[in-house]
Each structure stands twice: as C-alpha cells, then as structure tokens.
C-alpha cells in the first residue's frame, strides 16, 4: 500500500519533492538555524524512496513499479554533478546526507540488477565520497574535509558498503 502512495507522489521529472511534505520549514533545530535544510533535499528523498522500492523487490527492469524506479534512478543520475556529488540543489546542512542517500540507491540498483549503464555513475559517486572524507579523522560532515559527525559518517559508510556489494 505504501508503495502505491509513493507512486502517486512522484513528480514528472522522476523525483519526489520534499516540499510537498513541508520539509525544510523548521526555523531552528536545538537552537541552530539550519536554513530550511530539507527544503531542497530532492536527491536524498528520491534516493530513500527508490531504496524502498528496491527493498520490496521492484527494480527499473521488472515489477509493477518498474517505471517509478526507472524515473527515480534517471533523476538521480541526471542530477549528478561533474565532481560525482549527488546532492543536487541541497543546502549546506543537507548536502552530505543527500549525496549518501542518492548514492546508496544507485549502488543498490546496480548491485541488484547488474545493469552496466548505472556503473559509471556509481563509480563517480563513490570517488566523490572518498575524496570528501576528512583525511585525519576519517569522518564526513557538511563540507569536504570537515571533522566528521556520526550521522554523516553513517550515511557515507552505508553508501560505500552498497558500492562494495556492487563490486566497486
């Protein structure tokens, strides 16, 4: 049932729009202004929804939600930046999260299907993740090379694990 809900909320360009669900409307989080961090987290939200479909056994090659998964993957791939990052238009406080979520999704799709068309984008995303890690502490945060925090670390390690499972 929830997958049919996701199907109906997908935008024509393949993404799921976090603004439809009031993302980024918070003014302050624990006294810090995050500048509406989730407002432009389209790649992160799309990555998570695609992972939901993949986890339920639907890919861009088969299943009743094939077209939704395909459009979602195409959106993520189309919005990948030249440096390999997949954060799209996300603001500073959401970029690393969005990149990790989007990379997890395309790596998972490649791992499940072996569709070689996806591989170059996974490789580029994985290289971006590795290049932004803090060389001294091993963490990730908001900007490449920042001291890390555990939530950012977790998303990047999960994305790298999906890359590894895909043979990258």
What does it look like?
The protein contains six helices and no strands. The chain has helices at residues 2-9, 42-55, 66-78, 92-113, 119-132, 150-165. The longest helix is centred in the middle third of the chain and has 22 residues, at 92-113. With 168 residues, the protein is mainly α. The model has no long low-confidence stretch (mean pLDDT 90).
Any chance you could write out the topology, listing elements then pairs?
Blueprint lengths: L1 H8 L32 H14 L10 H13 L13 H22 L5 H14 L17 H16 L3
Q: Can you give the helix content as a percent range?
A: 40-55%
Order of helices and strands: HHHHHH
Beginning-to-end CA distance, first to last residue: 34 Å
Parts with pLDDT < 50 across at least 5 consecutive residues: none
Largest sheet: none
Quickly count the helices: 6
Number of strands: 0
* Anisotropy-based shape: globular
Give the DSSP E fraction (strand runs of 2 or more residues). Answer: under 5%
* Arithmetic mean of pLDDT: 90
Give the class from helix and strand content and strand pairing: mainly alpha
Radius of gyration: 15 Å
Main attributes of the structure:
mainly alpha, globular, single chain, 168 residues, 0% strand
């Amino acid at each position: 049932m929830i997958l049919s809900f996701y199907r109906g909320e997908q935008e024509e360009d393949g993404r799921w729009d976090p603004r439809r669900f009031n993302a980024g409307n918070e003014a302050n989080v624990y006294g810090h202004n995050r500048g509406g961090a989730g407002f432009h987290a389209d790649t992160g939200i799309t990555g998570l929804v695609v992972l939901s479909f993949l986890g339920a056994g639907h890919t861009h090659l088969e299943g009743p939600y094939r077209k939704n998964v395909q459009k979602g993957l195409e959106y993520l791939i189309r919005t990948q930046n030249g440096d390999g990052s997949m954060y799209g238009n996300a603001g500073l406080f959401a970029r690393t999260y969005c990149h990790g979520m989007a990379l997890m999704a395309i790596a998972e799709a490649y791992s499940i299907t072996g569709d070689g068309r996806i591989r170059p984008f996974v490789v580029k995303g994985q290289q971006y993740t590795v290049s932004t890690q803090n060389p001294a502490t091993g963490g990730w945060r908001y900007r490449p090379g920042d001291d890390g925090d555990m939530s950012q670390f977790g998303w990047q390690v999960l994305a790298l694990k999906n890359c590894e499972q895909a043979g990258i």
